[in-house]
Amino acid sequence: MLDFYQIQLTRCLETEQYGEAIQLLKFLLQCEGQEQYKTEWQALLDWLLGAFPEARGLNDAMVEDETESDMAEQYFRTKVDEDPEYVNKVLDSIMNGPLTPQKLLALEQLTYMDHPEIDEVLKTWLKAEQLPALLQFHVLQTLRKRGAAGTVEFTRGHEQLELEIEATPVRYEDFPQAVLNVPERVREQTEIQDPGLSLLALELWEQCVMAMYGTAAYNSIIDDDDSTIDIWAASLHIWMKEMLTGDFDMESEKIEIRESYGITDALRFRMEQAYKQLKGLIESPFLTSD
Fold it and tell me: What is the DSSP string of 41-94?
């Protein structure tokens, strides 16, 4: 369950829903038995309250989003004025240690900082280091939000990628429609008998597509025929069912799931490949550069 809340928290930060992140952190700090995480959660909550003091009452209205952005920009401009080394400190915190919510927030800070070296430092870091897949995507997002342009080359596992910064989705809703259709297809199949599965599938699918972004697997989702959505949706459904039940030998149920998505014998091999791709991501879990 803790992993689920961590995913929720990460999603709130990625989508700039800082008010929801604050409420979730307050809830987590009240939970018993998680003392080893509370220092980290408290530090994150303190940062959010300092950077976005109006976040408690923010909604998604455009005017309030603009106010939040202006406020954040002013906050970080003040921090840089007070400490000329602040940008370097933020970059150092990003480039060292594992991927954490704080690291995502540090990347978010960079979107508000006017410093001539940030873009090149991030591009060089992407190219020179074998970064975790999710971190690679968030660096691309940061460059996009900062208004950087052009292409950037880096390695993802065994693939050499060359991606246009301007094409990087800023929000999940910015991904191509084929990507959005996959969890929607799962929802259609599960919303009556197992609605919880479809909700969790959406959360994890968002993480999957960020980790796959720009790879051959990702391109197969957006470039192939209509059957591709069924292939990936069936793979996601089977994968989620195995995770939730702990049953990895559910052959009869797998057959039923494949049939419900129209996976014929001709599509079976492609579905198995998609399933292996998703299974590899969760076993990483999402964070390795392989």
Answer: HHHHHHHHHHH-TTGGG--S-HHHHHHHHHHHHHHHHHHHHH-TTHHHHHHHHH
Position 28: which residue type? L
Sequence-distant (6+) residues with CB within 8 A of 30 are: none
CB 192 within 8 A of CB 204: no
pLDDT digits (tens, 9 = 90+) for 269-279: 999 999 999 98
C-alpha neighbours within 13 Å on the C-beta side of residue 4: 9
The secondary element (H helix, E strand) that includes residue 23 is helix 18-30
The token pair that represents 207 in the structure block? 């993480």
Q: From CA 107, how far away is CA 143, in angstroms rounded?
A: 9
Dihedral sign of CA atoms 204, 205, 210, 211 in order: positive
Residues near 164 by beta carbon (within 8 Å), at least 6 away in sequence = 150, 151
Beta-carbon-side half-sphere exposure of residue 32 (alpha carbons within 13 Å): 0
pTM value is 0.75
Q: Mean pLDDT over residues 156-175, rounded?
A: 94
Taking the chain, what is the end-to-end CA distance rounded to the nearest angstrom? 26
pLDDT, position 65: 46
